[in-house]
Design a protein that fits this description.
This protein is mainly alpha-helical. The chain has a domain at about 55-125: MDM2. It is built from six helices and two strands. The chain has a two-stranded antiparallel ribbon. Helix 3 (about 60-65) packs antiparallel against helix 5 (about 100-110).
Length: about 130
């Protein structure tokens, strides 16, 4: 008898329709659309700073290394590094230090200088 009741209960459960989910009506929210992406601008090269590009005349010990033709500060730095690399003047243990040869010793005033001090010494000899 218990089996019959269980079968009837199972059949009744199967016949029942699944419960409907209640759908709440909500006020429509205004959805802001993302602004359209702007067309990507073509990147152009940065305009160099006029102060760096102004030709300067090397004087004294700097002229002995670079020559006496006017050149921009950027070129002066580049030429000094070429000189340092060519003559193998960077310290082997600490690459930030520059070992001065006779020409650079006149520029630095000491036997060894840091690469960060380089612009300080160079700026004194640019007119």
């Amino acid at each position: 008898m218990a089996m019959k009741k269980a079968k009837k209960a199972g059949k009744k459960a199967a016949k029942k329709a699944p419960a409907k989910k209640s759908v709440k009506k909500t006020a429509k929210k205004s959805v802001k659309k993302a602004p359209a992406k702007k067309a990507a601008k073509k990147r152009t090269a940065r305009k160099p700073n006029a102060a760096f590009m102004k030709p300067m005349m090397p004087t004294g010990p700097l002229a002995a290394i670079l020559g006496s033709t006017p050149m921009p500060r950027t070129e002066v730095t580049s030429q000094i590094w070429k000189y340092i690399k060519k003559n193998n003047l960077q310290d082997k243990a600490n690459r930030r230090m520059i070992n001065a040869d006779e020409k650079l010793r006149a520029l630095f005033g000491k036997a060894q200088a840091s690469m960060f001090e380089l612009t300080k010494y160079v700026s004194k000899h640019l007119k």
